[in-house]
Design goal:
heterodimer, A: 308 residues, alpha/beta, 6-stranded mixed beta sheet, 4-stranded antiparallel beta sheet, 10 helices, globular, B: 416 residues, alpha+beta, Rossmann fold, Elongation Factor Tu (Ef-tu), domain 3, 3 domains, 7 helices, 21 strands
Chain lengths: 308, 416
C-alpha cells in the first residue's frame, strides 16, 4: 500500500511579510492604473524608504512611473538629505522639493511663534500638489501609528482643500479600490496601511534595505526636555537649566529636527533594533513626537486640515 | 509566520472593544503610552477601572458618544502569527462597515452578552459573516463572570445559535465562553469554566488552518497593469502585472485570455526578486506570455478548460451603502477585479430582512444598509464566478458615476 507521505501536497504558504508586500504592490499598481499624475511623498524616514522600495518592485523591470516629492521643513538631519539624494539618483526618478523655507519667504505661510514647522507643512504640501497637478499622493502612513489613522482607508479621499472628513469615507472591500475623483480633488494613498512598526523593521532586515545612519545607535550631544531627549543642533537649542551630555542614542522616527526626539539605545544593527522594538513599551510616536502630546485628537485635527 | 485577518462584531454594550483591548493588552501589543492615555481618559470619564474599550475608540465623536462609529483596523502579533482586526460597529446603522470588514476576513467573532443571549444583532452579524462567506466563525459568549460562569447559560446560547446557524451555510463554527473584562478563556483556558473543553480564543486564532481557505483550483489572473520598460536593457519586455486571484499558475501553463478567448503559454512569472516557479494567491506577480496578443488591463487569464463566465447579466446579493435608494432602471458602475463597466439595474428581486432572513419581494428598492437580490445588465462582459466559489472573482463594488462614491457591494450568485 502506498505511503501517503509519498505524495507531496504543497501548501502554497506565504509569510506575513510577503503577504503585506503583495498587497502594497497591488495598491501601488492600482493607483497608477486608475489615476493620472501620482506622486510619492518621501520624507527619508524608514516608512517612506520601504514604500519607495515597494514602488520599485511594483514596476520592475521598468522605472517607477511617477516622481518623488519631499516636503522640506528646512529642519533636516543632513544624513537624511544625503540619503534621499543618493536613493533618488539610484532609481532614476524625478525629485520635487516642496520647500517650507521658500514658502515662508514668499509669504505663503508664516512661522508660528514657537518656531515649530509641523503645522505649516500642510499648506506647503497642498500648494505643491496643486501646482504640479498631482491627483494622487502616496504616503508611508501606517494605521498602527495613531488612533486617527486606524480609521483611515487605504485610498483616502481629499476635497479640493486637501481636507479629510472621517465620517465620509468610501467603503473598501476585498482588494477593490475606487479611485474616481472630480477635477480639483485628490487622493492620498497609504500602501503601508496594514504594516506595523515591527513589520517595517522585519522587512528592512529581510530585504537588506539601506537606511539613514541616524536610525542606528550613535553618539550625540543631547539634552532632556519633557521626558524626551533632543539633539543639540542648529534647530534645537537647550534652554536655561537644560544640560547637554553625550549619550548613545538612535532615532525611531525621522521628522523635523527641531522637535524629533531620540531614545537611548545600543541598537546599532537592524537585528538589534528589532529586538528593541519588540520589547519596547512606548509607541513610536509617543516616545518621540512632541507635537502629538497636545491633545488626544491632535492627529485627527491635523488630518481634517489637510495635513498628510 | 503567516497572517490572519478577522472581523469583530458585536452590540455596543457587548464588550467588543474590551475584548480587542484585552487581546492587544495580553499579547503585549499595547504600548505604555497608549495605556497611559487610556487610564487618563478613563479617569476623566469617571470610570473607576481602566476602560480598555477606550483604547480602540479613536475618533473624537466616538469618544464623546462612547460608541464606535466606523471600522477600525488594529494590529497585534504573537510569535506564531500576525493578526489584522477589522473592528466593526454593532449598530445596524453601520452594517455597511461590517460588510466591508468581513470582506477580507478569514474569521469573524460574533460577540454576545451571556446575560442577554442571542439578540437581533447577533443573528444579523452572523448572517453578514456568512453572506460575505467568511470561512470561520467564532461565537464568543461574553460576560460569563456575570452569570457565575454557568455551563447551562453557555449551552443554551450555543444550542440556540447552532439552531439558527443551521439555516445559513455557516462553515466552521466554534463557541467559546469568555470574560473579556477578566480575561477568562481569552489567552489561556480559564479555571472558572472547567466544564468547557474547547480552545481559548487566542489559541484558536493562532492555530486555525487558513491556508486551504483560498481557492487554489480555479486559476484566475486579472490583468492589472501592463509593464513595458521599452529601455535599452529590456527592449521587448512585455509583462502583465497583477495579483493572483485564485488557483496556481506556472511557467509552461497554457492559458486563455478573456474576453478575447485567445490562448497562449506562460513563458515566465516574474517578481522584482526574480522569476518564480509558481504563483498563487495573494502573490502580486508579472506574467510573460509566448505570444504577442492584444491584452490590456481588465482582461483575465485562466486555464482553457476552466474559465469564468464572461457575463453581462449578473445576478447578485447586494449590500447598499448610501442614502439614496437603489432602484430599478438606475444606472451604476460595476468594478469587478480590474475591470469597470457601466450597468443598469434590471430588477430588484427582493429585499432581505437581515434579522429574520425574510424575503420581501414587494420592496422594489434597497435603502441604506439593506441587502437584497439584484439583477444587473452590464455594458461590457465581466469575467465572473459565483461568490460562493471564489471570493476574489465573485465580488464587486458599485460606484455612482455622478458622485464617484462607492455605493454598494455585491456577491455574485450567477452570471450569463
Amino acid at each position: 500500500m502506498a505511503d501517503l507521505s509519498d505524495r507531496y501536497v504543497p501548501e502554497y504558504r506565504i509569510s506575513h511579510l510577503k503577504a503585506l508586500e503583495a498587497e502594497s504592490i497591488h495598491i501601488i499598481r492600482e493607483v497608477v492604473a486608475e489615476l493620472e499624475r501620482p506622486v510619492l511623498l518621501f520624507s527619508g524616514g524608514k516608512d517612506s524608504i520601504v514604500m519607495l522600495r515597494l514602488a520599485e518592485k511594483a514596476f520592475h523591470p521598468a522605472r517607477i512611473p511617477f516622481p518623488v516629492m519631499h516636503v522640506d521643513t528646512g529642519h533636516n538631519f543632513p544624513e537624511v538629505l544625503e540619503f534621499r539624494d543618493r536613493r533618488v539618483a539610484q532609481l532614476g526618478v524625478q525629485l520635487i522639493v516642496a520647500s517650507v523655507p521658500e514658502a515662508l519667504e514668499r509669504g505663503l505661510v508664516q512661522e508660528p511663534p514657537d518656531g515649530t514647522r509641523n503645522r505649516i507643512q500642510t499648506p506647503v504640501l497642498l500648494d505643491a500638489l496643486e501646482k504640479e497637478r498631482f491627483t494622487a499622493a502616496f504616503g508611508g502612513a501606517r494605521r498602527d501609528e495613531d488612533k486617527a489613522r486606524a480609521k483611515e482607508r487605504v485610498f483616502s479621499f481629499r476635497d479640493e482643500f486637501g481636507q479629510w472628513d472621517p465620517k465620509n469615507q468610501r467603503p473598501e472591500l476585498w482588494n477593490l479600490y475606487n479611485g474616481r475623483i472630480h477635477l480639483g480633488e485628490s487622493i492620498r494613498v497609504f500602501p503601508l496601511s496594514n504594516w506595523t512598526e515591527l513589520d517595517i523593521w522585519q522587512y528592512v532586515e529581510a530585504e537588506g534595505i539601506d537606511l539613514p545612519s541616524i536610525y542606528f545607535a550613535h553618539e550625540r550631544s543631547v539634552f532632556e526636555r519633557n521626558g524626551m531627549l533632543y539633539a543639540d543642533n542648529e534647530f534645537c537649542r537647550p534652554r536655561e537649566g537644560e544640560t547637554t551630555s553625550i549619550r548613545r542614542v538612535r532615532y525611531r522616527t525621522v521628522g523635523d529636527a527641531s522637535l524629533t526626539a531620540a531614545v537611548e539605545s545600543e541598537a546599532d544593527t537592524v537585528t538589534k533594533i528589532i529586538a528593541e522594538v519588540a520589547a519596547t513599551r512606548i509607541t513610536e510616536r509617543g516616545a518621540t513626537r512632541g507635537d502629538d502630546k497636545f491633545s488626544e485628537a491632535a492627529m485627527e485635527d491635523r488630518k481634517r486640515e489637510g495635513y498628510f | 509566520m503567516d497572517l490572519l485577518r478577522f472581523a469583530t462584531a458585536g452590540s455596543v454594550d457587548d464588550g467588543k472593544s474590551t475584548l480587542i483591548g484585552r487581546l492587544l493588552f495580553d499579547s503585549k501589543s499595547i504600548f505604555t503610552d497608549q495605556l497611559e492615555a487610556v487610564e487618563a481618559a478613563s479617569q476623566a470619564k469617571g470610570d473607576d477601572y481602566v476602560n480598555l474599550a477606550l483604547l480602540t475608540d479613536g475618533l473624537r465623536a466616538e469618544r464623546e458618544q462612547g460608541i464606535t462609529i466606523d471600522v477600525a483596523y488594529r494590529y497585534f502579533a504573537t510569535p506564531r502569527r500576525k493578526f489584522i482586526i477589522a473592528d466593526t460597529p454593532g449598530h445596524i446603522q453601520y452594517t455597511r462597515n461590517m460588510v466591508t470588514g468581513a470582506s477580507t476576513a478569514d474569521l469573524a467573532i460574533v460577540l454576545v452578552d451571556a446575560r442577554k443571549g442571542l439578540v437581533e444583532q447577533s443573528r444579523r452579524h452572523a448572517f453578514i459573516a456568512t453572506l460575505l462567506r467568511v470561512p470561520h466563525l467564532v461565537l464568543a459568549v461574553n460576560k460569563m463572570d456575570l452569570v457565575d460562569y454557568s455551563a447551562e447559560v453557555y449551552e443554551r446560547i450555543r444550542d440556540e445559535f447552532v439552531g439558527f446557524a443551521a439555516k445559513l451555510s455557516v462553515p466552521d463554527l466554534v463557541v467559546i465562553p469568555i470574560s473579556a473584562l477578566h480575561g477568562d478563556n481569552i489567552v489561556t483556558r480559564s479555571a472558572n469554566t472547567p466544564w468547557y473543553d474547547g480552545p481559548s480564543l487566542l489559541h484558536h486564532l493562532e492555530n486555525l488552518h487558513v491556508a486551504s481557505d483560498r481557492n487554489l483550483i480555479d486559476a484566475r489572473f486579472p490583468v492589472q497593469y501592463v509593464i513595458r520598460p521599452q529601455s535599452s536593457q529590456h527592449l521587448d519586455y512585455r509583462g502583465y502585472a497583477g495579483t493572483v486571484a485564485s488557483g496556481v499558475l506556472k511557467p509552461g501553463d497554457e492559458v486563455m485570455v478573456l474576453p478575447s478567448g485567445f490562448t497562449t503559454t506562460i513563458t515566465a512569472i516574474d517578481t522584482a526578486d526574480g522569476p518564480v516557479a509558481e504563483a498563487f494567491p495573494p502573490m502580486s506577480v508579472t506574467v510573460r506570455l509566448a505570444d504577442e496578443i492584444d491584452i490590456s488591463r481588465g482582461d483575465m487569464l485562466c486555464r482553457p478548460h476552466n474559465a469564468p463566465t464572461p457575463a453581462q447579466n449578473i445576478d447578485a446579493m447586494v449590500c447598499w451603502m448610501t442614502e439614496r435608494p437603489l432602484q430599478p432602471r438606475q444606472r451604476i458602475v460595476v468594478k469587478h477585479t480590474t475591470r469597470s463597466a457601466r450597468a443598469m439595474v434590471k430588477d430588484i428581486q427582493y429585499r432581505l430582512d437581515v434579522n429574520t432572513l425574510h424575503r420581501d419581494e414587494a420592496a422594489g428598492q434597497l435603502g441604506l444598509n439593506d441587502v437584497g437580490r439584484v439583477q444587473l445588465r452590464t455594458m461590457q462582459p465581466l469575467m465572473v464566478d459565483p461568490y460562493q466559489r471564489n471570493r476574489a472573482t465573485g465580488g464587486f463594488i458599485l460606484v455612482d458615476e455622478a458622485t464617484n462614491t462607492t455605493v454598494g457591494a455585491g456577491m455574485i450568485t450567477s452570471g450569463s
